[in-house]
């Protein structure tokens, strides 16, 4: 994963010299006023030179004086939490098994094995088809076992002649 510069968090509000909130899209391009972060009050700069994107503010490189304040900034801490969440999510997704599409089918209605799309050409439907894996699992179970695990099914005695 590429390294993210945490200070480049996009903020769309800043405080001006009079401590008034200023939206980034309302600032005149090329203005060199001093703006501050509304959370940590550290200096931020206007980024308005990206074509096709709205203007935003981002933190300046912290000095020794502002380093402690920037580390407590809610905007930056939220971005750090977001990046940590994305890393955990990416690791979780990467560890998951891939799903392979089913290509082998067995139609229980007409007892036909076929491959490809789930549509039996003999009975002209796919509603009665199960995957080969499910079909072979079913036939490899011991006598008297159900599909739901190790519980024995009720045994029906054969009809007796009277």
From TrEMBL:
Q: Where do the DUF3279 domain residues begin and end?
A: 104-135
* Pfam families documented for this protein: DUF7828 (PF25165), Zn_ribbon_11 (PF11682)
Q: Where is this region: Disordered?
A: 141-162
Where along the chain is composition biased (Polar residues)? 141-153
Q: Which InterPro entries match?
A: DUF3279 (IPR021696), DUF7828 (IPR057150)
Start and end residues of each DUF7828 domain? 9-94
What protein name applies here? Protein of uncharacterized function (DUF3279)
**Protein species of origin:** Cedecea neteri
Taxonomic lineage is:
Bacteria, Pseudomonadati, Pseudomonadota, Gammaproteobacteria, Enterobacterales
């Amino acid at each position: 994963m590429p390294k993210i510069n945490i200070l480049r968090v996009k903020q769309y509000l800043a405080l001006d010299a009079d401590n008034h909130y200023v939206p980034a899209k309302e600032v005149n391009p090329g203005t060199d006023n001093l703006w501050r972060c509304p959370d940590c009050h550290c200096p931020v700069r206007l980024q308005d030179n990206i074509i096709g994107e709205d203007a935003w503010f981002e933190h300046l490189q912290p000095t020794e004086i502002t380093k402690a304040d920037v580390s407590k900034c809610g905007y930056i801490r939220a971005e750090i939490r977001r990046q940590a969440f994305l890393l955990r999510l990416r690791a979780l997704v990467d560890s998951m098994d891939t799903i392979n599409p089913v290509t082998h089918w067995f139609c229980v209605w007409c007892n036909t094995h076929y491959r490809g799309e789930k549509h039996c050409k003999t009975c002209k439907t796919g509603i009665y088809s199960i995957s080969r894996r499910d079909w072979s699992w079913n036939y490899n179970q011991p006598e008297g076992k159900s599909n739901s695990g190790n519980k024995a099914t009720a045994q029906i005695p054969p009809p007796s002649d009277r």
